[in-house]
Specification:
Length: 381
C-alpha cells in the first residue's frame, strides 16, 4: 500500500494529526477541500482561548496539560509563535456554570488560581465593570492561540517530516474494508489506498460520517471586533486577560485582549447564544446590524467600552453534540478508521493533544490519554 494513513480534512485537528503521524515516521497523505489555514470552517478568526481550569468538565484538565506541552514543542520545532499567555478571568455569579465549574476543576486538579470579588476585578482590570455579586476565577496560565498560525505551523511541520499534503482536493467518498485493514478514498483527482484513515472533517463530519449516525449539529456563530470606547490601552495583552463572562440570565460572552495593538479592535463573541443551525453550504456569512447591536449591548453589561463601534465581524461554525463533549474514537466495526468530531465550540485549545491521540489510535489502535468522556456509544439509544 502506498500510504500508511490518509487524513481527511486538514483544519485544526487534521493538521495536528498529520504532524504527529509524520513525526512518527508514518507515510501520510492529507486531503483538504480548501487551501492551508482557510477561513471557511471552524479554525479562523485570529484567536482561540486556552485555559486550564475547565468549567465544562474536570476530565479535560489532564489533556490540557499535555496540550500546552505540545504547543510549546510545536513552537520550538518550527520557530512559530502560536501561544500567548495573558492570564484568564472566568466571571459571573458564584453559582454560574462558568464560575462554579472553573473553581471545581481547579480544586480537583490543584491548579494555581485566585478567586476575586467584584471590587478586586475592577481594581485589577479596570476595563471590567462587574455588578454586585460577581466573582471571578483568575488563572495565570490562560491565554490565546492564533488558529491560522497554529494550523500553518502543524502543516509546515507535517510537510517537513514527510507528509504529502494535498489542498483544493475534496474527498468525495471513502470506504473501509470489512477485514479491518485497508481503506480507499476517492477525490476528484484520484483514488488513494492506505491501511488506516483518520477523519477530521469538522463541520462536514455530519456528511462524511453520515453512516455512523452521530448526533452532530452545525451552528453558525459570529465573532466581532469592537473599537473600544476610550481606546485600546486598558485592553493591551500585558494588562488585560482573556475572559468568559456569564451574565445573570445565563448568557455567556468571551473575549480577548487587543492582540494587534492600537488601532486594532478587541474581539468579543457570544458562547453558544443565538446559534443558528446550518450546514457549510447554507450558512449565512453576512453579519447583520441587529446582531452587532445585541453583542455591543450584552458585552457592555460587563465591559462598558464594548458599546463602541464594530469594525469587523465574521462567521464561523461550531459542530456540536447534545452534551457538548467531543467524539474521539475508532469506528467500532471498522477499527482502521479513527474519527474526531463534535468539538462543540471548544476544541481548538486541544488540537495539539488531539493530534497525538489520533496518531496513537491510528498507529497503535489505542491511546494512554483518558478519552472515555468522548466515546460515541454514549449516544446509543
Ligand atoms: C467563533 C468560534 C470561536 C471559537 N472559540 C474557541 C476558543 O476560544 N477556544 C477553543 O478551544 N475552541 C474554540 N472554538 C472551537 C474550535 O475552533 C473548533 O473546535 C476547532 O477549530 C475544530 O477543528 P476541526 O479540525 O474539527 O474543524 P476545521 O478546522 O473546520 O477542519 C475541518 C477540515 O476538514 C476539511 N474537510 C471537510 N470535508 C472534507 C472533504 N470531504 N475532503 C477534504 N477536506 C474536507 C475542511 O475543509 C476543514 O479544513 C471556536 C470556534 C468558533 C467557530
Amino acid at each position: 500500500m502506498a500510504h500508511d494513513v490518509i487524513v481527511l480534512g486538514l483544519g485544526g485537528m487534521g493538521s495536528a494529526v498529520a504532524c504527529h503521524l509524520a513525526e512518527r515516521g508514518a507515510r501520510v497523505v492529507g486531503l483538504e477541500r480548501f487551501g492551508p489555514a482557510h477561513d471557511q470552517g471552524s479554525s479562523h478568526g485570529r484567536s482561540r482561548i486556552i485555559r486550564l481550569a475547565y468549567f465544562e468538565h474536570p476530565d479535560y484538565v489532564p489533556l490540557l496539560v499535555r496540550a500546552y506541552e505540545l504547543f510549546e514543542k510545536l513552537e520550538a520545532d518550527t520557530g512559530a509563535r502560536v501561544l500567548t499567555l495573558t492570564g484568564g478571568l472566568m466571571a459571573g455569579r458564584e453559582r454560574s456554570a462558568v464560575v462554579s465549574g472553573s473553581i471545581a476543576s481547579a480544586r480537583e486538579h490543584d491548579l494555581p488560581h485566585e478567586v476575586l470579588g467584584s471590587a478586586d476585578i475592577r481594581q485589577r482590570f479596570p476595563a471590567f465593570d462587574p455588578g454586585e455579586g460577581v466573582v471571578g476565577l483568575y488563572e495565570d496560565s490562560a491565554g490565546f492561540l492564533v488558529p491560522e498560525d497554529t494550523v500553518g505551523a502543524h502543516l509546515r511541520r507535517a510537510a517537513a517530516t514527510g507528509a504529502d499534503l494535498r489542498f483544493e482536493e475534496p474527498a468525495l467518498a471513502w470506504s473501509a474494508h470489512a477485514s479491518g485493514d485497508g481503506v480507499t478514498v476517492t477525490t476528484a483527482r484520484g483514488t488513494y489506498e492506505a491501511s488506516r484513515l483518520v477523519v477530521t472533517a469538522g463541520s462536514w463530519a455530519p456528511v462524511v460520517l453520515e453512516e455512523l449516525g452521530l448526533p452532530l449539529v452545525v451552528e453558525r456563530q459570529v465573532m466581532y471586533w469592537i473599537d473600544p470606547i476610550g481606546g485600546v490601552e486598558p485592553f493591551l495583552p500585558d494588562r488585560f486577560p482573556i475572559y468568559i463572562y456569564e451574565l445573570p440570565d445565563g448568557v455567556q460572552f468571551y473575549g480577548f485582549p487587543a492582540q494587534d495593538g492600537p488601532p486594532g479592535g478587541i474581539k468579543v463573541a457570544f458562547f453558544r447564544h443565538n446559534s443558528v443551525v446550518c450546514t457549510p453550504e447554507t450558512i449565512d456569512r453576512t453579519v447583520h446590524q441587529r446582531e452587532i447591536d445585541e453583542m455591543r449591548e450584552f458585552g457592555s453589561r460587563g465591559i462598558p467600552a464594548l458599546a463602541g463601534e464594530c469594525i469587523e465581524a465574521k462567521t464561523c461554525m461550531y459542530t456540536s453534540t447534545p452534551d457538548e463533549h467531543f467524539v474521539i474514537a475508532l469506528q467500532p466495526d471498522r477499527p482502521q478508521v479513527a474519527l474526531a468530531a463534535g468539538f462543540s465550540g471548544h476544541g481548538f485549545k486541544f488540537t495539539s493533544v488531539v493530534g497525538e491521540i489520533l496518531a496513537d489510535l491510528a498507529l497503535d489502535g489505542k491511546t494512554s490519554h483518558p478519552i472515555g468522556l468522548f466515546a460515541p456509544d454514549r449516544f446509543a439509544p
